[in-house]
Here is the input.
Amino acid sequence: MSRLLNNKTKRLVPYTPGEQPKDAQYVKLNTNESPFPPSEKAVKYAQAELDRLMLYSDPDCTPLVKKAAEVFGVAEDELLFTNGSDEILNFAFMAFCDEERPVAFPDITYGFYPVFAELNGVPYEEIPLDKDFKVNVEDYISIGKNIFLANPNAPTGIALGLDEIESIVKSNPDNLVVIDEAYVDFGAESAIGHIKKYDNLLVTRTFSKSRSMAGARLGFGIACRELIADLNTVKYSTNPYNVNRVTMAAGTGSLCDEEYTLKNLEIIKENRELTVCELEKLGFKVLPSKANFVFACHPFFDGERLYKLLKENGVLIRHFNKQRIKNFNRITIGTKEQMQTLTNKIKTIFTSEGLI
Here is the structure.
C-alpha cells in the first residue's frame, strides 16, 4: 500500500471474488454463473446499441424501467437499476446506515455485507446462523437495527418463507430491511409484493444468475417510491450514468424473453435435484438449497482438499476458509453434462482414497 492511503481504507478487508481462471480450461462451477448464454433478444438489443457508444446512456434507464415495471408488477418510480446488485446494496449502506443506524446480518452470508459496512463506517452485528445453518427469525424480531438478509442465503442456499420475512419487516418499522434476492428465481418466494405494504422494505435483484448476464453487470432495487428517491440521491451524487447503454438494452431484451429465462430455470432446478441425489449417494451432507448452487460437505473428506483435488482434475468449485464452514464447498449447478463430470471426478478421487 502507498504511504498516502487513509486509515479507514488501510483497515478494509476486501471482498474476495471467485476465481476467474486464465491459465487453463475448467468445468467452472465456482461463481454461480449461468451455464446458458443470454437470451437471443438480449444479444440483439445489445448489438443495436454498439453504434451509439459515443453517446452517454440514459441515466433514468427509461425503456428498461418501463419493461421491468410491467414484468414485476410495480410502478416505474418504485425501481432503480444499478451496475450489478452490489451497487444498490452499497447505495443502501450509504443512504440509510451510519453510526446511529447500525446494521445486522448473518455471520455466514454474502461476503460483501461486512465490506460495505466497513467501507461506509457503519457498526454492524453478525448474528450466528442456527445449528442447521438457517437464519433464526427470532434473532431479528424488533432488533432495532437495519437488516440485510440474502434470501436464499449464500453460500448455504437455504431460504426463508415469505411469512418469516414479513414478520421481520413488520417488527422493525423504523429500520430498513433489505432482502437480497440474487437467487430467488431458483425456487424461493419473492418479497416484491410487500413493498407497497411496508415502506421500510428494499428488495434487491440481479440479472447475473437467472438471466445469464453476469458479465453485463446489471442489478436493481424495488421499494416504495420514497426509498427509491433516497437511493437516487446517492446515485446522482456518485455516478448518474451507472448503467451503460449496451447493458441497459440487453436487460430490456432479456425481460422481453421471459419464456427463455423460465425454461433455463427449470433445467437448473432439475439438475440441482439430480446433483443432490448423486452427492448424497457418495455420502455428502447437502443443505436444502433454493439457489443455483448447493452447499455440501463429506464426513470423511476434508473440504479444502477436495476443492484442490477437483481443481487439479479440471473442475472448479468454491471453498471458504471460515471456521464453521471450512469443510463445506459451494457447487454451482451447471448443465447436466457438467454435473456428471463433477460427480465422476469425485468418484475417481474417492476411489483412489479408498472411500468407494
Q: What stands out?
A: The chain is about 35% helix and 15% strand. The mean pLDDT is 96.
